[in-house]
């Protein structure tokens, strides 16, 4: 890991001697959070997730995430501007992401580092305003910040596309994207192909704009070269819209409705491309509603608010439901000292209702009174509680609390954008 960053730094330094990569044309950006926490028994902090929240597999979304982040995380990106003017914009961009548990000094065997972006984009060439890109990128639009949840237009991966096309007062873009598995078949490595179309910022008035998103994905029929299992042809689609309301230049409200079917019912690139005869994926449909608000009420108060609902249906019946509600009020005691609290509750219904709720208090020192002002240094205490139906799921990530219905942690965290 150390040698990787040394090599990266060396490349950046020598790039200053190359005409195309003059250091004055290099932009660095990223995100970092790191901290330390102790659980209520005196051991290392353990985090609590409501599995199934937000669809997909794994532990679920990190809802009401303040003080419920048990790892250090870094995104570090560089943009090399070859041409940057009012009419032309040509750049190369890459970004790495590193995750580590934060247990010791080096953690060489416990952390992961990946290239999550590596693409080039050209805009304004040949006297055309359009943009064209090829590579791997974070191809995503809107998120719920307090849940760390990109819910609309999240198609991160490898692909190519064009954009900046004027349509109905907004901007239209089109992309071709691929996600490839490790499965070898008679037609090659199995994967998913997605065609993604977006129309952003269509104005209704000075305060209200609307986004539209449509995507179609498919995976071919194939036969596994090792097991000889036959994979059925799979496909699916996404349709969605998002209303973006500017609240008197003091914040925004985003309301989105999305519908996904079959291969695309998780609203991303990662549907199952290796389905066999009788698999339910083709009949699965997912409906998602999201309302996300960030608002500066006055000089003293501001808040983030999220209301999320999702329903997975298969064979004409509801297979799983999720509802989450959370709020993060910020009280500015002074311009740079804030009292931040967060409270939320989540319910996942799948063969019974699994509940998870959390309350957190976190005084922090910040760069400014802006709700987005970073960096911040926080102290925190967080308390989560869940019902008995959720014990086994919670224990998978927090084994210390396997026989409990509540748990907590205290500690410190820093967070910054740059």
From TrEMBL:
Record protein name field: Carbohydrate porin
Membrane topology type: Multi-pass membrane protein
Originating species: Bacteriovorax antarcticus
Leader sequence segment: 1-20
Family the UniProt entry places it in: Belongs to the porin LamB (TC 1.B.3) family.
Pfam families per the UniProt record, alphabetical: LamB (PF02264)
Matching InterPro entries: G_neg_Bact_CarbUptk_Porin, Porin_LamB, Porin_LamB_sf
Subcellular location: Cell outer membrane
Keywords of this entry: Cell outer membrane, Ion transport, Membrane, Porin, Signal, Transmembrane, Transmembrane beta strand, Transport
Statement: the UniProt record of this protein carries the keyword Cell division: no
């Amino acid at each position: 890991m150390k040698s990787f960053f040394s090599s990266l730094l060396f490349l950046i330094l020598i790039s200053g001697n190359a005409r195309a990569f003059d250091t004055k044309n290099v932009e660095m950006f990223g995100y970092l959070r790191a901290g330390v926490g102790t659980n209520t028994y005196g051991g290392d902090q353990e985090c609590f997730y409501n599995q199934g929240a937000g669809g997909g597999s794994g532990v679920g979304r990190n809802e009401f995430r303040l003080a419920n982040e048990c790892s250090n995380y870094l995104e570090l990106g560089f943009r090399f501007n070859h041409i940057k003017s009012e009419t032309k914009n040509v750049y190369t961009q890459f970004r790495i992401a590193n995750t580590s548990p934060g247990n010791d000094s080096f953690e060489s065997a416990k952390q992961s580092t990946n290239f999550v972006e590596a693409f080039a984009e050209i805009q304004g060439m040949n006297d055309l305003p359009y943009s064209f890109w090829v590579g791997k990128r974070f191809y995503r639009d809107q998120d719920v910040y307090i849940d760390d949840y990109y819910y609309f237009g999240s198609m991160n991966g490898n692909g190519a596309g064009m954009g900046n096309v004027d349509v109905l007062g907004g901007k239209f873009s089109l992309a071709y994207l691929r996600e490839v598995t490790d499965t070898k078949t008679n037609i090659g490595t199995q994967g998913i192909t997605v065609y993604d179309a977006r129309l952003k910022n269509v104005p209704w008035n000075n305060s209200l704009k609307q986004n539209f998103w449509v995507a179609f994905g498919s995976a071919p029929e194939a036969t596994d070269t090792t097991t000889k299992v036959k994979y059925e042809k799979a496909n699916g689609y996404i349709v969605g819209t998002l209303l973006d309301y500017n609240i008197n230049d003091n914040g925004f409200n985003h309301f989105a409705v999305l519908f996904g079917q079959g291969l695309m019912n998780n609203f991303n690139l990662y549907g199952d491309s290796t389905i066999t005869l009788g698999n339910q994926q083709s009949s699965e449909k997912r409906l998602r509603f999201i309302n996300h608000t960030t608002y500066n009420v006055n000089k003293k108060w501001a808040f983030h608010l999220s209301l999320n609902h999702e329903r997975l249906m298969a064979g004409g019946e509801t297979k799983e439901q999720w509802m989450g509600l959370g709020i993060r009020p910020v009280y500015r005691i002074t311009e740079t000292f804030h009292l931040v609290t967060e409270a939320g509750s989540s319910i996942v219904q799948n063969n019974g209702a699994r509940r998870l709720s959390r309350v957190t208090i976190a005084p922090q020192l910040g760069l400014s009174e802006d709700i987005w002002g970073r960096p911040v240094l926080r102290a925190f205490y967080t308390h989560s509680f869940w019902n008995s139906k959720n014990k086994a799921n919670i224990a998978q990530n927090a084994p210390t609390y396997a026989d409990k219905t509540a748990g907590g942690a205290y500690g410190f965290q820093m967070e910054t954008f740059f």
